[in-house]
Specification:
- This protein is α+β, with helices and mostly antiparallel strands.
- The chain has nine helices and 17 strands.
- It has three domains: 104 residues, Rossmann fold; 157 residues, 2-Layer Sandwich (D-amino Acid Aminotransferase, Chain A, domain 1); 83 residues.
- A hairpin with a 5-residue loop joins strand 10 and strand 11.
- The longest helix is centred in the last third of the chain and has 27 residues.
- It binds adenosine-5'-diphosphate and magnesium ion.
C-alpha cells in the first residue's frame, strides 16, 4: 500500500536511480541510497528514491521509495527541493525523455534544483580538457574511431598497440586492447564484452580481424587511444581513483583516493570487472619508491584540484567527480577518465572510514547548502 505524504519540514532530496526488477528493492544502488537516507536524517534532509517511471505524468509529484525503520517502503511524495540524478544513460533518448518528464514538473509550477548537471561522455570531456594547456601533457592522444584504415594508421604510429573504448561506456565494459604482431600481420585482441566478461581473439589475417573490430563497435561512438602500459610490476592493470566533491559550503575538496587493481591480463582495473581496491600511498610507494610516489601524488593532487572548476565552466554545475588517473611504467601520470556519477565502494573496500563517510555525507551537505541558498534568495 502507498503511504500518503506529509508536508516536508526540512529540505527534501529525491535520488533518481535506474529501475532493476532483478533485485529487491527494484532499483540500483539501494545500499548507497540507504546510506544517503541515514546521513540525511543526521543533517535535516529527507531522502526519497525514484526511477524515471515514478515521475507522475501530470507533473504533480512522484511515486517511489523511502527507507524507514530498517526497510524500503513504497511512497508517494511531493516534488523534492533537490534532485540527485544517479542514472547512467546509455541511450541519449532515455536522458531526453527523463529530462522532458522533469520539465513538466517545472511547467506545472513546482520548483526543484538539480544537485548537478552531468558530463556528456568521454570524447566531449577530452575535447574540453584539451583546451587548457595545463592538462595537455597528461592527456593521452585521442580520436573518434572511424574505420579500419584509421586503425591501421594508429597501430603503425603507436608501436602496434592501441586501446578502444566507448564514448559513453562505464565499468570498463566494451574496452578493447588491440595488438598487431607485425611480421605476419596477426591481430591479437583482448577485451571486455557488454557484460564485462573478459575475452581474447586471435586473427591470422588483418582483414578478418579488422572486420571483427568493426562489428564489435557497430553503430556506437568509440574513441581510440595509444595503448598505455598502465600496469604494475606484476603486469596487473591499475588506476588511481580520486573522488572530488563539493562540501557543506559549496566548495570543492578531495574526499579520498584509492588504487583499483585488476588481475593480470584483465585489460581494465574497474571494480565492476573484478578489480580490488587497495590503499594508494602504500601501493605507489612499493611500486615506484618513496620520492617518485611523492611526485605522482603531487601531480594527481594538482590536477584533481584544477579539473572540477574547469569542467563546471564547460558543462554547468557539478557536485562530485570521480577522476581516473593511469600511471605508466615510467611513472608518468595520465588523465584517463572523469565520471560525474562516481561510485564510492573503493573507500568502503579499503576501510578508509573517513573518506567513505564523507563520500556519502558530502552530497547531502551540498544539497542542504543549495536548498538554504535558494531559501535565502526567495526571502530576500
Ligand atoms: N589508453 C589506455 N591504455 C591502456 N589501458 C587503458 C586505456 N584507457 C583506459 N584503460 C583501462 O581501461 C579502464 C577503463 O577505462 P575508462 O576510460 O576509465 O572507462 P570506463 O568508463 O569504462 O571506466 C581504465 O581504468 C584502465 O584500466
Ligand atoms: Mg573508468
Amino acid at each position: 500500500m502507498n503511504q500518503q505524504f506529509t508536508p516536508a519540514a526540512s529540505a527534501v532530496m529525491g535520488v533518481m536511480v535506474s529501475e532493476n526488477h532483478n533485485v529487491s528493492p527494484p532499483f540500483g544502488e539501494a545500499l548507497f541510497c540507504r546510506r544517503l537516507t541515514l546521513a540525511g536524517a543526521r543533517h535535516h534532509l529527507k531522502v526519497y528514491v525514484f526511477t524515471a517511471e515514478g515521475i507522475l505524468g501530470d507533473g504533480s509529484g512522484f511515486e517511489g521509495y523511502q527507507y524507514t525503520r530498517g526497510k524500503w517502503i513504497n511512497v508517494s511524495f511531493p516534488v523534492p527541493d533537490i534532485i540527485y540524478d544517479r542514472v547512467s544513460y546509455r541511450d541519449p533518448r532515455q536522458l531526453q525523455l527523463t529530462r522532458q518528464k522533469l520539465a513538466h514538473i517545472t511547467e506545472a509550477g513546482h520548483q526543484f534544483q538539480y544537485l548537478a548537471r552531468g558530463l556528456s561522455g568521454k570524447w566531449n570531456v577530452y575535447q574540453s580538457l584539451k583546451r587548457r594547456k595545463i592538462f595537455l601533457p597528461y592527456l593521452p592522444k585521442t580520436a573518434k574511431y572511424k574505420d579500419s584504415r584509421q586503425l591501421a594508421r594508429w597501430l603503425h604510429q603507436h608501436d602496434n598497440e592501441v586501446f578502444l573504448k566507448p564514448h559513453s561506456g562505464t565499468h570498463g565494459k566494451m574496452t578493447l586492447h588491440i595488438r598487431l604482431v607485425n611480421e605476419d600481420q596477426h591481430l591479437m585482441l583482448t577485451g571486455r564484452d557488454r557484460n564485462n566478461a573478459l575475452f581474447q581473439k586471435h586473427f591470422h589475417e588483418w582483414e578478418t580481424g579488422a572486420a571483427w573490430v568493426d562489428r564489435f563497435i557497430g553503430e556506437r561512438a568509440f574513441i581510440i587511444q595509444p595503448y598505455l602500459q598502465l600496469t604494475d610490476s606484476d603486469g596487473r592493470p591499475f588506476d588511481v581513483r580520486v573522488l572530488m566533491q563539493k562540501n557543506e559550503s559549496g566548495r570543492w575538496s578531495l574526499t579520498g583516493m584509492a588504487v583499483r587493481l585488476g588481475e593480470k591480463d584483465s585489460v581494465t582495473s574497474n571494480l565492476h570487472g573484478g578489480g580490488t581496491a587497495v590503499e594508494a600511498g602504500r601501493f605507489l610507494t612499493l611500486e615506484f619508491g618513496e620520492s617518485a610516489a611523492e611526485m605522482i601524488f603531487g601531480t594527481i593532487r594538482r590536477l584533481s584540484a584544477e579539473i572540477p572548476e574547469y569542467l563546471e565552466s564547460c558543462f554547468g554545475r557539478l557536485a562530485e567527480l570521480g577522476i581516473d588517473f593511469g600511471i605508466d611504467r615510467k611513472g608518468r601520470v595520465w588523465i584517463i577518465e572523469v565520471n560525474s556519477k562516481p561510485g564510492r565502494s573503493a573507500f568502503f573496500q579499503i576501510g578508509d572510514q573517513m573518506s567513505a563517510r564523507k563520500s556519502v555525507e558530502n552530497p547531502v551537505m551540498y544539497a542542504r547548502y543549495l536548498w538554504l541558498r535558494q531559501l535565502r534568495r526567495v526571502n530576500s
